[in-house]
Amino acid sequence: MPGFITARVSGNHHLISSESELKKGNIDAAEFIRPDTDLNQRLFDAVKFNYFPGWHSQNNVGELIINQNIWQKLSPNHQMIIKHVCEANYLNSYVSMNFNQIKPMNELKRKGVKFRNLNNKVLINLKKAWKEVIQEESKKDPLFAEVYSAYQKFRDQYAIWGEKGYLK
Q: How distant, in Å, are the alpha carbons of 17, 70, 71, 80, 81 from that of 75?
């Protein structure tokens, strides 16, 4: 989805298969996942700017999918163990993913990468494009529409806390 959105805003979006296009100077910005991964992939060799906030990949999400018939055959204790392990894994992933950006960001900074914030105009345009893409994709794909509707319902309910619970 982020590719569709940035293409709509900029009129151009490319998936690159190698660092060579970056090194040639044909592309002046790139983002793989997060600073830790960007550092690991050595994007700093070719790109000297990192813009925030990220438009996607704000958190890791892992899935465990179990066939419903198999799940129902598990004892309640086994189901509970699996649920708790998944919850613990998610919590660990969330905490470590955030904590694990500190050292890579400092290292990227030492390597000459400059951190910038996207300005409000860009963020407004990205949000507008996001809404347009959502409408188009929802018309094309009933499952997409169903998932997005559930997501938006949660966001609407969460807004009371999201708007008041954090410093801005």
A: 47, 10, 9, 9, 10
The answer to whether 15 and 30 have CB atoms below 8 angstroms apart is: no
Position 55, amino acid: W
Rounded Cα–Cα distance for residues 56 and 4 (Å): 12
Q: Look at the block and give the residue holding tokens 């094309």.
A: 140
Tokens of 10: 């900029």
- Per-residue pLDDT tens digits for 92-126: 888 888 888 999 999 999 999 999 888 899 889 88
User: Would you list the domain boundaries of the chain?
Assistant: 2-118
Listed in sequence order, the DSSP H helices in 11-113 are 20-23, 35-40, 68-73, 76-99, 102-110
Tens of pLDDT along 139-152?
A: 999 999 999 999 99
Rounded to 5°, the CA angle 14-15-21 comes to 80
Q: Taking a C-beta distance cutoff of 8 angstroms, is the pair 22, 43 a contact?
A: yes
pTM of this structure: 0.67
